[in-house]
Amino acid sequence: MSRPLSLRVELRRQVTRPRTRWSLLVLLVLPLVVVAAFALGDGDSEGQTFADLATTGAANFALFMLLISAELLILILAALFVGDPVPAEASWSSLRYLLIAPVPRARLLTSKLLVGLALTAVAVLLLLVWVLVVGGVVYGWDPLSLSVGGSLAWGEVLSRLAVGAGYVFVAQLPFAAVAFWMGVRTDAPLAAVGVAVIAAIVSSILDALSALGDYRRALPNHYAREWIGLFTLEPDYAALLPGVLWALLYATVFITLGYRHFARKDVLS
C-alpha cells in the first residue's frame, strides 16, 4: 500500500489532472501551428536569423522552437506545475485533511515540489523530442545551419540541444520557486502562477534598462538566452555557469521561504 502523499501517489494525482493533460497537449500542438504558419507565409526569407533558418531542417526547427518557447510557454508551465498544487488542494478544501492524515508538512511540500519540477523537465524534454520529429518529417534531416555560416553534424547538434534544453529548465527555476513560495501563501492557484509570470516580465523590463549597468547581472533572467551561444563553431560552455548559479540561488531562497512560511501557516482549508 502506498504511503499518503508518496512521490508515486503525488505523481499520479498530478498527471491525471486536466491541467496537466491540457498543458502537454499545448506543447504537442504548438509545433504544428508553427509549421502551418510557415506554410502560409510567402517563403521569401533569405536572412540568417533563427526564424529564417527554421525551415531548413529538423535541427534548425528544433532550435527555433526551443528559443520561442523557453521564455513564456515553458515559464508558464514551470510556474503552473510547481506553484499550483498546494493552493489547488486548499481551494478544494482538501489540504487540511491531507495534514490530518497525518502527513508531515515538509513531506507534503517536498512531494509536490519534486513532482512539479519533474513535470517541468518532462515538458521540456517532450517539446525537444517532438519538435525534432515534426521538423524532420516536414523539413528533412539536414545538419544544423549556423547563422554565422557553416553547419554542425547531428552528433554535435543533439549534444548541444540537450545541454540547451537543460539550461532552459534551470533558467525557469527562479520563477518556479516564486510560484512555489506564492502558492503556500494563497488559496488561489492563478495567483501563484500570475505572480511568477509578472516577476519574469518585470525582470525582463529591468534587464532592458542599460542605466542599471552591471546590476542587471543579478536579475533572474539576465542570462536566460545564454544557451544560444552553444550554437556557434566554438561554443563557450563556461558562459552558462553564471546563469546556472544565479538561478539556483534564487530558487534556493524562494523555496526556503516557502517551506518556512508553510511550517508556520494556519491551514484552514
How does this structure look, described?
Helix 5 runs parallel beside helix 10 (173-183) and helix 5 packs across helix 11. The model has no long low-confidence stretch (mean pLDDT 88). The radius of gyration is 20 Å and the shape is globular. The protein has one domain (7-264). The chain is an all-alpha fold. Strand 1 and strand 2 form a beta hairpin. Strands 1-2 form a two-stranded antiparallel sheet. It contains twelve helices and two strands, in the order ααααααααββαααα. The longest helix is centred in the middle third of the chain and has 35 residues, at 105-139.
In short:
With 269 residues, the chain is mostly helical.
Determine the number of helices (DSSP H or I, runs of at least 4 residues).
12
How many separate domains make up the residues? 1
Rg of Cα set: 20 Å
Largest sheet features: 2 strands, antiparallel
Calculate the mean pLDDT score and round it.
88
Order of helices and strands: HHHHHHHHEEHHHH
**Secondary-structure-derived class:** mainly alpha
**Unreliable runs, pLDDT <50, ≥5 residues?**
none
Helix % is: 55-70%
Walk across the major sheet and give the strand order: 1-2
**Portion in beta strands:** under 5%
- Give the termini distance in whole angstroms: 27 Å
- The overall strand count is 2
Shape: globular
